[in-house]
Amino acid sequence: MSLRSLEFASAESFVGIKRNALMSLASITTVGLTLAVLGGFALLILGLNNTAKTQLQKFEVAAFVKKGSAESAVKELDEKIRTLSHVKDVQLVTADEAWLEFRRDMSGSIDLTGVKHNPLPHTFRVTTDDPASTAAVAAGIRRMDGIDEVNEASREVEQVMRLTNLIKLIGGIAVGLLFLVTAFIVGNTIRMTVYARRREIRIMQLVGATNWFIRMPFVLEGTILGTIGGGIACILVYFGARYVSQTAVRIMPLLSQFTSNTDPVQFFGCIILMGSLLGMMSSIISVRRFLKA
Amino acid sequence: MIEYRNVSVIYPNCIQALRNINLQIEKGEFVFVVGPTGSGKSTLLRLVNREERPTSGEVCVAGKDLSKMRGGAVPRLRRAIGVVFQDYRLLPQKTAAENIAFALFVTGAPRKEIMSRVIESLDLVGLADRADAYPHELSGGEQQRVSVARAIINNPQILIADEPTGNLDPDTSWEITRTLERINIRGTTVIVASHDQHIVDRMHTRVIAIENGVIKRDVKEGTYHELAKS
């Protein structure tokens, strides 16, 4: 591909976009919406994955001591837990420590100045030597007197993962369908440009222009439409996610712990790249069928 | 140069355009293909640059069997074959020179070379002074000459012209035919499908008469008239 044919292709592709402005706009919009939906789902899935990994897997079993237990009883529990098989480590987080930690984590997102009494119990964070035995360890602790509640991180992780899988499935189907619709609309836009230029194409074919030379302006046109659509999707996802997360945190402050922890440059770069590829592939397919020599 | 071996063409709507054609055209020949509308003249011509493919049989151009040619090799074939149409097929938004240059441009020729060859080509068809005119500013004859200039810009080995004088008055038709003859003298094989009895008779070159997809007559120094007799 010489510089000159690229120059020709880019000039022609902009002419094409201008010539059917309305369809181009429709293409850009559908690409934008499709990728925004994709981006939204991706952000949600990434967030769930990240939360499951970072927040819930800090420890495997959390045992909450009944409120008002004596210090000696707590010490006794500590020793009893250590005697259980497969227990690797037991860490006592006192109510005061837990309260401090909680306030530190929540600073900025919830106003806790009004809360005078520490609502949290003493907590044992128990690590096992084998993730498969977590359930057995948890059951063992649950049977002990003086224990109020036992949380197994693995079960929570599992639940979050199950939710993530469901969202992945729904998102996958929705995005798949939207991709088809988008490919159809972009393909049709390109086909209209091809149709408007059929005389030129015919002449190009007869004087021996290669198929790629003829196709390039249309492929470029589709790529440009897709890329702009990807950019619009980024804007939609950015502001959409900001609005949703702000609203959600206002309603449920604990959600401030929920972050996708993704690199925005990489994430939005991916969306734009997908837009370009979607536009490019749609036009390649649509032009291929039209330009059989 | 061009060889048809047992060529038949049947269109998807079951119309048989050509039936078992066997024909040979040598390098440097000037050939008229004559016959009534729908006889298969255009199909015969369109087989040469692989606009059309035979349903059965073989078409060989310069020793190459076109039905075995890969799609990617077709552009190279077409650069060696100039095409002229009855309706000129010029791009209305481009000047005469730009229309001619376009044919070279899309094949990726260097810019400098394009300029000099466009001028040379316009000179050959006698339109050097109309280079900057748009098609709508040119007469039918002039437009056809532009299209001839475009067809020969790649120095083709073969020139095919499908009713090139169909829309022109007798004098202009003769001029165009003389232009084609000049191109032929330079070594290009020229094949012209024509209705124009006057021109065919006056040129007195090889005439191939087709009727209902079959070659009725192939005469070295023929005339259009014999067709009426036969």
Question: Which key features would you list for this structure?
Answer:
heterodimer, A: 293 residues, Alpha-Beta Plaits, four-stranded antiparallel sheet, elongated, B: alpha/beta, six-stranded mixed sheet, globular
Descriptive report:
The complex is a heterodimer of chains A (293) and B (230). Chain A has helices at 3-19, 21-54, 71-83, 95-106, 134-142, 153-196, 198-206, 211-251, 264-290; strands at 61-65, 87-93, 123-128, 147-152. With 293 residues, chain A is α+β, with helices and mostly antiparallel strands. Chain A has 2 domains: 3-55 and 158-291, no CATH class; 58-152, 2-Layer Sandwich (Alpha-Beta Plaits), CATH 3.30.70. Chain A has a 4-stranded antiparallel beta sheet with strand order 2-3-1-4. The mean pLDDT of chain A is 82. Chain B has helices at 41-46, 74-79, 96-105, 111-124, 140-152, 170-185, 197-203, 226-229, and strands at 2-10, 16-25, 30-34, 56-61, 64-65, 81-85, 158-162, 189-194, 206-211, 214-219. Chain B has 8 helices and 10 strands. In chain B, strand 9 and strand 10 (214-219) form a beta hairpin. The model of chain B has no long low-confidence stretch (mean pLDDT 90). The radius of gyration of chain B is 17 Å and the shape is globular. Classes of the chains: A alpha+beta (293), B alpha/beta (230). The interface between A and B is medium-sized, with 19 and 24 residues.
